[in-house]
Write a structure and sequence with these properties.
CATH class of the largest domain: Alpha Beta
Radius of gyration: 20 Å
Number of domains: 2
Helix content: 25-40%
Order of helices and strands: HHEEHEHEHEEEHEHHEHEHEH
Distance between the termini: 21 Å
CATH topology of the largest domain: Rossmann fold
Shape: globular
Number of helices: 11
CATH architecture of the largest domain: 3-Layer(aba) Sandwich
């Protein structure tokens, strides 16, 4: 339930179109719903502006489906449903609940689109250094769109060939927020940040050879960026970058 829905509920009670008992029933699981193995946070969209997102990895397909069913059952909430780090088995279970569910195999994201409201003030641009970084970049792209933003992507424009990046100067300067995804030595965010005035959210990926230490080298490089408009999220955390970008884009 978001603020708009709650206000409408209160207006209906005040106008006599909804009884107090009916309103209480609709608010019964307002804070959270206890499924035993999970407590679904129905209150999150009111607190934070976007609903709870389901992290699929480590959960059984049946557990994910039960959480999604709980979210879909709230007829007073029309927010999009997003599952991250899912697999085909999870998707099959979710698809049984909602035929509109769409699976993005590269990132493992599942989206059930129930609204197309754009809440962001500008565009979010997702930039990836290499093709191998696309799965993380796509998670950021899919999540940003599901959270109500206009978002697009530019892939494979890393520092090994900067002319590829410079060919997109107009898109870079037009973006309100940029998510920059890179593995290896993680140099791309510093370059991108030096070209724009927008905040750049860096996502180190686990792509790289031995001394990259599974993304730690890229993470440290991004944390030590000399560009002052760079911030950093955790390794491979495309979803986290999308959340931060969405908060900035709504402000």
């Amino acid at each position: 339930m978001d603020e708009k829905t709650l206000r409408e509920l209160l207006r209906q009670v005040r106008a006599g179109r909804l009884t107090e008992a009916a309103a209480i029933e609709r608010l019964r699981h307002f804070a959270f719903e206890d499924l035993g193995f999970a407590k679904v946070d129905h209150h999150r969209s009111l607190r934070q502006g976007f609903a709870e997102v389901v992290f699929g990895r480590g959960k059984t397909p049946q557990q994910v489906a039960a959480i999604v069913r709980s979210m879909l059952a709230r007829k007073d909430a029309r927010h999009n449903v997003l599952v991250t780090r899912a697999d085909p088995a999870i998707y099959r279970e979710v698809k049984r609940l909602a035929r509109r569910a769409r699976f993005h195999p590269l990132s493992g994201a599942i989206v059930i689109e129930r609204e197309r409201v754009i809440r962001g003030k500008g565009a979010i641009l997702v930039v990836s250094a290499g093709t191998s970084d696309i799965p993380v970049a796509e998670e950021a792209l899919v999540a940003a769109r599901a959270l109500g933003n206009r978002a697009e992507a530019i892939y494979d424009v890393g520092v090994a060939g900067l002319h590829r990046l410079l060919g997109h100067r107009e898109k870079l300067t037009a973006a309100r927020v940029i998510i920059c995804v890179a593995g290896m030595e993680g140099a791309l965010p510093s370059v991108v940040a030096g070209l724009v005035s927008a905040p750049v959210i860096s996502v180190p990926t686990s792509v790289g050879y031995g001394a990259s230490f599974g993304g730690v080298a890229a993470l440290l490089a991004m944390l030590n960026s000399c560009a002052s408009n760079v911030s950093v999220v955790n390794i491979d955390n495309g979803f986290g970058a999308a959340c931060v970008a969405s908060c900035i884009n709504r402000a």
